[in-house]
Amino acid sequence: MPEKMRYVELSETDNNITIHALNEFRNKLISEKKSTDDINYILNKFICAPEKKPRWFSREER
Questions:
Q1: Distance separating alpha carbons of residues 32 and 26, to the nearest angstrom
Q2: How far apart are CA 12 and CA 5, in angstroms?
Q3: What is the pLDDT of residues 21-52, one digit of tens each?
Q4: DSSP string, the chain
Q5: How confident is the model at residue 58 (pLDDT cuts 50, 70, 90)?
Q6: For the chain, what is the radius of gyration of the CA atoms?
Q7: What is the distance, to the nearest Å, from the Cα of residue 54 to the centroid of all Cα atoms in its chain?
Q8: 26: closest CA among 4, 49, 9, 47?
Q9: Cβ neighbours of residue 38 under 8 Å, at least 6 residues apart?
């Protein structure tokens, strides 16, 4: 069975808060000398996520 993917729309502020929180958690793991591989992977996804421009349609185009 293929892995399920989840897509979440975040505002710029929410995205920045998420990146900051993940980075704080990563720093905590580093100070505890624990592996950060999984957090690095997720953090990279948030940092490199493409920005989707909203589509605006007029009533006539629908």
A1: 10
A2: 21
A3: 999 999 999 999 999 999 999 999 999 988 87
A4: -PPP-------HHHHHHHHHHHHHHHHHHHHTT---HHHHHHHHHHHHPPPPPPP---TTT-
A5: low
A6: 17
A7: 18
A8: 47
A9: none
- Identify the residue whose tokens are 């007029």: 58
Domain extent listing, the chain: 12-48
> For the whole model, what pTM was predicted?
0.74
Are the CB atoms for 46 and 18 separated by under 8 Å?
Answer: yes
Residue with tokens 């808060």: 17
45 is written with which tokens? 């996804």
The two three-digit tokens of residue 3, written as one number: 């892995």
User: Which of 1, 6, 2, 12 is closest to 42 using CA atoms?
Assistant: 6
> Residue 56, by phi and psi: left (phi above 0), alpha (psi -120 to 50) or beta?
beta
